[in-house]
Design brief:
Layout (H helix, E strand, L loop, with lengths): L15 H10 L8 H14 L3 E5 L2 H11 L7 E5 L8 H5 L3 E5 L10 H14 L5 E5 L8 H10 L4 E4 L7 E2 L2 E2 L6 E5 L12 E5 L2 H11 L22 H11 L2 H18 L6 E3 L6 E2 L5 E5 L1 H4 L3 H10 L5 E2 L15 E2 L2 H9 E4 L7 H16 L6
Parallel strand pairs: 2-3, 2-4, 3-14, 4-5, 5-8
Antiparallel strand pairs: 1-9, 6-7, 6-11, 8-9, 10-12, 12-15, 13-15
């Protein structure tokens, strides 16, 4: 039997064990420590940002980021609707109200024109959002050339959720560094993994100090345990940071590998009617974290679910694109601007196995199933 092909499994560098052993031998096994400090410095330098704060998850980083931006109960925070729930859950943690915005024509990211119209309307009504969470999807940056000036005009800060886009960029500028604050995730399926963890990318030392303080239970610098405000237990373990440093050392190799995988898919599925690969905007450098196709059932003769089911039968993991948050029961009743494009992406979008350890023969195995299903009118074998 062929081995199961997974969507995006962890891909270790081989240096993780040595780093973890170093941490163990130093007896730094609790949260924080020299590995955390080094991981933060190295990531900030790699991405060209002022400061990086290592935390327990990307969700924690979003929560801290929104807190730093002054989000309070009753505020509105606008967010991309085509994304994972973690992009918006922290809005609710803070007692604020999420408002969702649709994707742009021909792409996944937040629609800049729709955002501009919505901000114009909100500005004239005196109901501007406290912040906008813009999500970089599947390894591609949002259209910051248009989004940032619109938000700046109205004085609304952008929190860049780059959890899926480490290694991507725009004209040499790295994902995570476009907003007032940026967020990374090191979940097991991401470009770089610490098994669990994340980072908040900051533009100043003051912001980073505030984030670290809140992430460490807001403990004051006193000989006893003194707390003037509520904090969080969001610190990253020194052991996990040791893993992250080993992963960071091969980041650009992993980006190159995923770009190779994308190229194999494009060649292997070339000519299949009704299949369209998502392409980033001109001038954008995709990390190709996830290779996704849009399935037009009228042209293709099969649906996205036909393909997903056949791939699963062939022991190949694939997944529908994100279900828009305005359709999720957990956000029922939230306002949404547009929504139809994101809904179409969910209905037609399929994420194919994209791990950086995939070989060309494995990609061909995936392509073979897809071609057979399309040629067979929805049937495999």
């Amino acid at each position: 039997m062929s081995q199961r092909i997974l969507l995006s499994p962890p891909h270790l560098s081989g240096r993780e064990a040595a780093n973890v052993l170093e941490a163990l031998e130093s007896n730094w096994v609790a949260p924080l420590g020299p590995q955390v400090d080094a991981f933060e410095r190295e990531m900030a330098a790699e991405l060209g940002v002022q400061e990086a704060v290592a935390v327990s998850s990307g969700t924690a980083a979003i929560h801290l980021g929104l807190t730093l931006l002054g989000v309070r109960p009753g505020d509105e925070v606008w967010c991309s609707t085509l994304t994972f729930a973690a992009s918006a859950n922290p809005i609710r943690y803070l007692g604020a109200e999420p408002v969702f915005l649709d994707s742009m024509e021909g792409g996944w990211g937040m629609d800049p024109e729709l955002l501009e119209q919505a901000l114009e309307e909100a500005g004239h009504c005196g109901r501007l959002p406290r912040a906008v969470v813009v999500v970089d999807l599947y390894g591609d940056c949002a259209d910051y050339d248009r989004i940032l000036p619109v938000c700046a005009r109205w004085g609304v800060p952008v929190l860049e959720d780059a959890a899926e886009a480490l290694g991507a960029g725009i004209r040499g500028r790295c994902a995570g560094g476009f907003g007032a604050l940026g967020v990374l995730s090191f979940n097991g399926n991401k470009m770089l993994t610490t098994s669990g963890g994340g980072m908040l990318l900051c533009g100043s030392a003051g912001e980073a100090a505030r984030a670290r303080y809140l992430a460490a239970q807001a403990r004051m610098p006193a000989p006893h345990y003194e707390h003037m405000e509520v904090g969080y237990n969001y610190r990253m373990s020194n052991l996990l940071a040791a893993v992250g440093r080993a992963q960071l050392g091969v980041l650009w190799e992993r980006v190159a590998a995923r770009r190779r995988v994308r190229g194999w898919y494009e060649r292997g599925l070339s000519g299949v009617p009704g299949l369209r690969f998502f392409k980033g905007l001109a001038g954008h450098e995709s990390s190709c974290w996830m290779t996704c196709v849009l399935v037009d059932p009228e042209t293709c003769g099969v649906t996205r679910e036909d393909l997903r089911s056949a791939l699963e039968e062939a022991d190949i993991e694939s997944r529908p694109c994100w279900k828009p948050l305005h359709l999720q029961q957990s956000f029922a009743g939230c306002r949404v601007f547009g929504g139809g494009r994101a809904e179409a992406c969910f209905e037609r979008g399929l994420c194919l196995p994209s791990g950086s350890a995939l070989g060309e023969s494995e990609v061909e195995r995936v392509c073979s199933v897809v071609r057979e299903v399309v040629e067979g009118g929805g049937k495999w074998k």
